[in-house]
Amino acid sequence: MDLANPVEHMIGELEREFHGVFSIETIRQYVMESAQPIDRPRIHDFLPLLLYRFTRERLKAVAQVQGRIAKDVPEVLFVCVHNAGRSQMAAALLDRLAEGHVHVRSAGSTPADEINPAVVQVMAERGLDLSKEFPKPLTDEVVRAADVVITMGCGDACPIYPGKRYMDWDVEDPAGKNQAEVQRIAADIEHRVRALIRELSVVPAQ
Fold it and tell me: Of the CATH numbers 3.20.20.140, 3.50.50.60, 1.10.8.1060, 3.30.450.40, which one belongs to the domain with range 1-70?
């Protein structure tokens, strides 16, 4: 696939969105740097779209860290090893239950090629579509931009910065589990997410 034209189009879109925040040279640098860690065989056909989304989130995080754009809501980052199960479920559940009052990111210390199909199926049963999501690498700027960092099995792979709230959720890994087991894990995560929403004093989950 010739990515030259899609990439230039992507850079143009990002330049318009971040006009006055980042130069086109900085945007181009982040696009090129972001391509390598997500160019994996199972997602290569969707690379332009996923690259746009990944780069956009990185640029937004950098702008927040540097004070170039304001944070309207708390930033929560979920991290697990592969970003293929627990952290994806937690991010999707928090995004829905917080009703836009929290901005959510997720990442993996060693991202997988794809999200666990059993996780995608179980979340679809809950009305959450993970089919367009993908495992993302953990980057420094998303940790720095987060107000709350929740690890779910990555341990010391997540860098520690002063002023951040760090939590560790001891949640069972859905890898290799059957559908019923993944449903149980999803219920556990939802319980924790609802408690987090109450702690953050945002819109209470019903």
Answer: 1.10.8.1060
What confidence category does residue 1 fall into, taking pLDDT thresholds of 50, 70 and 90?
very low
Of 180, 195, 170, whose CA–CA distance to 118 is shortest? 180
> Could you tell me where the DSSP H helices lie in the chain?
4-17, 24-38, 47-65, 86-97, 117-125, 140-145, 179-200
Burial letters 68-96, b for 16+ CB under 10 A, else e: eeeeeebbbbbbbbbbbbbbbbbbbbbbb
Is the pTM value of this prediction over 0.85? yes
Tokens 């990111």 sit at which residue? 105
| Closest C-alpha to 190, from 138, 147, 126 | 126
Given CATH 3.30.1490.10, say whether it is the number of domain 73-206. no
Least-confidence region, from 32-46, 91-105, 121-135, 148-162: 32-46
Q: CA-CA distance, 61 to 33, in Å (whole number)? A: 15
* Dist CA 101 CA 8 (whole Å): 33
